[in-house]
Amino acid sequence: MAASEPLGVRPSRSSPRSHPQHRRRGRPARARRDEMGPAARLRRAVEPVAESLEDRQLLTTTFTVMTDADTGAGSVRQAIIDANKTANVGGPDVIQFKLPGIGGHKIQLASALPDITDPVVIDGYSQPGAMANTNGPTQGNNAWPMVELSGNHAVVGDGLAITAGGSTVRGLAIDGFLSQTVGGVTTGGNGIRISGGAGGNVVAGNFIGLTPTGGTNLNNAGNGVQITASSNDRIGGTPPPTRT
After folding, report:
1. What percent of the chain has pLDDT over 90?
2. What span, in angstroms and rounded, lies between the C-alpha atoms of 43 and 14?
3. Rounded to whole angstroms, how far apart are CA atoms 32 and 20?
4. Dihedral (C-alpha) 154, 230, 87, 146: value to the nearest 10 degrees?
5. Is the separation of the CB atoms in 156 and 186 below 8 Å?
6. Which residues contact 226 (CB under 8 A, 6 or more apart)?
7. pTM of the prediction?
8. Which of 4, 10, 39, 148 would you label with 199, given CA atoms 20 to 30 Å apart?
Protein backbone atom coordinates (compact mmCIF):
# COMPACT_ATOMS: atom_id res chain seq x y z
CA MET A 1 0.00 0.00 0.00
CA ALA A 2 1.46 3.40 -1.07
CA ALA A 3 2.29 5.81 1.70
CA SER A 4 0.08 8.85 1.92
CA GLU A 5 1.61 12.34 1.71
CA PRO A 6 1.93 14.23 4.98
CA LEU A 7 -0.72 16.84 5.59
CA GLY A 8 0.31 20.35 4.63
CA VAL A 9 3.11 19.21 2.31
CA ARG A 10 2.68 20.21 -1.38
CA PRO A 11 3.64 17.79 -4.13
CA SER A 12 6.98 18.38 -5.79
CA ARG A 13 7.00 20.71 -8.88
CA SER A 14 8.69 17.90 -10.76
CA SER A 15 5.50 15.87 -10.58
CA PRO A 16 3.54 15.90 -13.91
CA ARG A 17 0.40 16.55 -11.91
CA SER A 18 1.91 19.31 -9.82
CA HIS A 19 0.54 22.36 -11.66
CA PRO A 20 -2.99 22.98 -12.99
CA GLN A 21 -1.64 24.53 -16.20
CA HIS A 22 0.33 21.38 -16.90
CA ARG A 23 -2.78 19.31 -16.52
CA ARG A 24 -4.85 21.72 -18.72
CA ARG A 25 -2.22 21.89 -21.43
CA GLY A 26 -2.13 18.15 -21.76
CA ARG A 27 -5.90 17.57 -21.99
CA PRO A 28 -7.79 17.39 -25.31
CA ALA A 29 -9.66 20.48 -26.59
CA ARG A 30 -13.02 18.76 -26.24
CA ALA A 31 -12.39 18.17 -22.55
CA ARG A 32 -11.57 21.84 -22.11
CA ARG A 33 -14.79 22.83 -23.92
CA ASP A 34 -16.74 20.52 -21.64
CA GLU A 35 -15.38 22.45 -18.67
CA MET A 36 -16.86 25.73 -20.02
CA GLY A 37 -20.07 26.89 -18.48
CA PRO A 38 -23.29 27.23 -20.54
CA ALA A 39 -22.88 31.03 -20.89
CA ALA A 40 -19.32 30.72 -22.23
CA ARG A 41 -20.35 28.05 -24.72
CA LEU A 42 -23.20 30.27 -25.95
CA ARG A 43 -20.82 33.22 -26.44
CA ARG A 44 -18.55 31.06 -28.57
CA ALA A 45 -21.48 29.76 -30.62
CA VAL A 46 -22.62 33.24 -31.62
CA GLU A 47 -19.20 34.76 -32.30
CA PRO A 48 -19.21 36.36 -35.82
CA VAL A 49 -17.24 34.52 -38.48
CA ALA A 50 -15.49 36.42 -41.26
CA GLU A 51 -16.69 35.30 -44.69
CA SER A 52 -15.11 36.13 -48.03
CA LEU A 53 -17.50 37.87 -50.42
CA GLU A 54 -16.13 35.73 -53.24
CA ASP A 55 -17.49 32.66 -51.46
CA ARG A 56 -21.02 34.00 -51.50
CA GLN A 57 -23.22 33.55 -54.58
CA LEU A 58 -26.54 35.10 -55.45
CA LEU A 59 -29.16 32.44 -56.03
CA THR A 60 -30.25 33.67 -59.45
CA THR A 61 -31.89 31.52 -62.12
CA THR A 62 -30.26 31.39 -65.55
CA PHE A 63 -32.06 30.56 -68.80
CA THR A 64 -29.90 29.75 -71.82
CA VAL A 65 -30.80 30.53 -75.42
CA MET A 66 -29.39 27.74 -77.59
CA THR A 67 -31.33 28.12 -80.84
CA ASP A 68 -32.12 30.97 -83.21
CA ALA A 69 -35.58 29.52 -83.82
CA ASP A 70 -38.52 31.82 -83.13
CA THR A 71 -40.24 29.44 -80.70
CA GLY A 72 -39.66 26.26 -78.74
CA ALA A 73 -37.24 25.02 -76.13
CA GLY A 74 -34.01 26.99 -76.01
CA SER A 75 -35.43 29.99 -77.92
CA VAL A 76 -35.29 33.55 -76.66
CA ARG A 77 -39.10 33.60 -76.66
CA GLN A 78 -39.25 30.59 -74.36
CA ALA A 79 -36.53 32.05 -72.13
CA ILE A 80 -38.61 35.21 -71.58
CA ILE A 81 -41.73 33.15 -70.87
CA ASP A 82 -39.85 31.04 -68.32
CA ALA A 83 -38.17 34.04 -66.69
CA ASN A 84 -41.52 35.82 -66.34
CA LYS A 85 -43.03 32.97 -64.38
CA THR A 86 -39.96 32.27 -62.22
CA ALA A 87 -39.80 34.25 -58.97
CA ASN A 88 -36.56 36.14 -58.45
CA VAL A 89 -34.39 34.86 -55.60
CA GLY A 90 -31.27 36.84 -54.70
CA GLY A 91 -31.51 39.02 -57.82
CA PRO A 92 -33.02 39.20 -61.31
CA ASP A 93 -33.10 36.10 -63.47
CA VAL A 94 -30.49 35.94 -66.24
CA ILE A 95 -30.99 35.12 -69.92
CA GLN A 96 -27.70 34.15 -71.51
CA PHE A 97 -26.83 33.07 -75.06
CA LYS A 98 -24.90 29.97 -76.10
CA LEU A 99 -25.89 29.68 -79.76
CA PRO A 100 -23.85 27.06 -81.63
CA GLY A 101 -21.63 27.93 -84.56
CA ILE A 102 -19.14 30.62 -85.47
CA GLY A 103 -20.03 34.25 -86.15
CA GLY A 104 -23.15 36.31 -85.55
CA HIS A 105 -26.63 34.88 -85.07
CA LYS A 106 -29.82 36.43 -86.39
CA ILE A 107 -32.98 35.56 -84.49
CA GLN A 108 -35.70 36.41 -87.00
CA LEU A 109 -38.98 36.77 -85.14
CA ALA A 110 -42.37 35.97 -86.63
CA SER A 111 -44.25 38.03 -84.03
CA ALA A 112 -43.52 40.34 -81.13
CA LEU A 113 -41.90 38.79 -78.07
CA PRO A 114 -43.83 38.64 -74.77
CA ASP A 115 -43.54 41.67 -72.48
CA ILE A 116 -40.90 41.30 -69.76
CA THR A 117 -42.95 41.37 -66.56
CA ASP A 118 -40.38 40.16 -64.02
CA PRO A 119 -36.90 41.68 -63.52
CA VAL A 120 -34.32 40.01 -65.75
CA VAL A 121 -30.83 40.55 -67.16
CA ILE A 122 -30.64 39.82 -70.90
CA ASP A 123 -26.93 39.51 -71.65
CA GLY A 124 -26.07 39.40 -75.33
CA TYR A 125 -22.38 39.62 -74.47
CA SER A 126 -22.60 36.12 -72.98
CA GLN A 127 -22.62 34.74 -76.55
CA PRO A 128 -19.15 33.33 -77.33
CA GLY A 129 -17.20 35.74 -79.54
CA ALA A 130 -19.16 38.84 -78.53
CA MET A 131 -17.18 41.83 -77.29
CA ALA A 132 -18.20 45.00 -75.48
CA ASN A 133 -16.81 48.35 -76.58
CA THR A 134 -13.42 49.33 -75.19
CA ASN A 135 -12.95 52.69 -76.94
CA GLY A 136 -13.38 56.06 -75.30
CA PRO A 137 -15.97 58.71 -76.33
CA THR A 138 -13.66 60.33 -78.90
CA GLN A 139 -13.14 57.03 -80.74
CA GLY A 140 -15.42 54.80 -82.74
CA ASN A 141 -17.44 52.08 -81.06
CA ASN A 142 -15.60 48.75 -81.43
CA ALA A 143 -18.27 46.60 -79.79
CA TRP A 144 -19.11 43.35 -81.55
CA PRO A 145 -22.53 41.98 -80.57
CA MET A 146 -23.16 38.47 -81.84
CA VAL A 147 -26.94 38.23 -81.32
CA GLU A 148 -29.44 40.13 -83.47
CA LEU A 149 -33.16 40.35 -82.69
CA SER A 150 -34.77 41.16 -86.03
CA GLY A 151 -38.31 42.05 -86.98
CA ASN A 152 -37.09 41.93 -90.59
CA HIS A 153 -39.45 44.83 -91.39
CA ALA A 154 -42.34 42.38 -91.08
CA VAL A 155 -43.15 42.22 -87.36
CA VAL A 156 -45.44 44.83 -85.84
CA GLY A 157 -44.41 45.47 -82.26
CA ASP A 158 -41.40 46.41 -80.17
CA GLY A 159 -38.12 44.52 -80.18
CA LEU A 160 -38.28 44.18 -76.39
CA ALA A 161 -41.03 45.53 -74.14
CA ILE A 162 -40.18 45.90 -70.43
CA THR A 163 -42.85 46.53 -67.82
CA ALA A 164 -40.81 45.22 -64.87
CA GLY A 165 -38.36 47.47 -63.07
CA GLY A 166 -34.78 46.51 -62.34
CA SER A 167 -34.10 44.86 -65.70
CA THR A 168 -30.96 45.10 -67.84
CA VAL A 169 -30.50 44.65 -71.59
CA ARG A 170 -26.99 44.64 -73.01
CA GLY A 171 -25.03 43.36 -75.96
CA LEU A 172 -27.85 42.95 -78.52
CA ALA A 173 -28.54 44.29 -82.01
CA ILE A 174 -32.26 45.11 -82.34
CA ASP A 175 -33.67 46.17 -85.67
CA GLY A 176 -36.47 46.04 -88.23
CA PHE A 177 -39.62 46.38 -86.08
CA LEU A 178 -42.75 48.06 -87.43
CA SER A 179 -45.43 50.22 -85.85
CA GLN A 180 -49.15 50.40 -86.48
CA THR A 181 -51.69 53.17 -86.06
CA VAL A 182 -55.23 52.35 -84.97
CA GLY A 183 -57.75 55.06 -84.19
CA GLY A 184 -55.04 57.68 -84.29
CA VAL A 185 -52.90 55.81 -81.72
CA THR A 186 -49.54 54.49 -82.87
CA THR A 187 -47.98 51.52 -81.10
CA GLY A 188 -44.93 49.35 -81.66
CA GLY A 189 -41.89 49.98 -83.77
CA ASN A 190 -39.52 50.76 -80.89
CA GLY A 191 -36.27 48.91 -80.44
CA ILE A 192 -36.94 48.75 -76.70
CA ARG A 193 -40.02 50.04 -74.90
CA ILE A 194 -39.94 50.64 -71.13
CA SER A 195 -43.22 51.47 -69.46
CA GLY A 196 -44.60 51.50 -65.93
CA GLY A 197 -43.02 49.20 -63.40
CA ALA A 198 -40.67 50.20 -60.63
CA GLY A 199 -38.08 51.86 -62.90
CA GLY A 200 -34.36 51.40 -62.48
CA ASN A 201 -33.87 49.64 -65.81
CA VAL A 202 -30.55 49.70 -67.70
CA VAL A 203 -30.07 49.59 -71.47
CA ALA A 204 -26.37 49.57 -72.31
CA GLY A 205 -23.99 48.43 -75.01
CA ASN A 206 -26.62 47.65 -77.66
CA PHE A 207 -26.84 48.36 -81.40
CA ILE A 208 -30.42 49.57 -81.92
CA GLY A 209 -31.40 50.07 -85.53
CA LEU A 210 -28.11 48.57 -86.70
CA THR A 211 -26.88 45.11 -87.62
CA PRO A 212 -24.24 43.51 -85.39
CA THR A 213 -21.48 44.90 -87.65
CA GLY A 214 -22.82 48.40 -87.09
CA GLY A 215 -22.83 49.06 -90.81
CA THR A 216 -26.25 48.48 -92.40
CA ASN A 217 -28.97 50.73 -91.09
CA LEU A 218 -32.14 48.76 -90.35
CA ASN A 219 -34.14 51.36 -88.50
CA ASN A 220 -37.05 50.48 -86.31
CA ALA A 221 -40.19 52.41 -87.27
CA GLY A 222 -40.47 54.09 -83.84
CA ASN A 223 -37.85 55.15 -81.31
CA GLY A 224 -34.64 53.42 -80.47
CA VAL A 225 -35.67 53.36 -76.80
CA GLN A 226 -39.03 54.67 -75.64
CA ILE A 227 -39.64 55.30 -71.92
CA THR A 228 -43.13 55.97 -70.60
CA ALA A 229 -44.17 56.38 -66.94
CA SER A 230 -40.91 54.93 -65.63
CA SER A 231 -38.19 56.66 -63.62
CA ASN A 232 -34.49 56.20 -62.81
CA ASP A 233 -33.80 54.31 -66.02
CA ARG A 234 -30.35 54.54 -67.60
CA ILE A 235 -29.62 54.43 -71.32
CA GLY A 236 -25.96 53.98 -72.21
CA GLY A 237 -23.36 55.51 -69.90
CA THR A 238 -19.85 56.91 -69.61
CA PRO A 239 -17.83 53.67 -69.24
CA PRO A 240 -16.90 52.32 -72.72
CA PRO A 241 -18.83 49.01 -72.41
CA THR A 242 -22.10 50.90 -71.80
CA ARG A 243 -22.02 52.96 -75.00
CA THR A 244 -25.19 52.37 -77.02
Report:
1. 64
2. 37
3. 13
4. 40
5. no
6. 158, 190, 192, 193, 194, 195
7. 0.75
8. 148
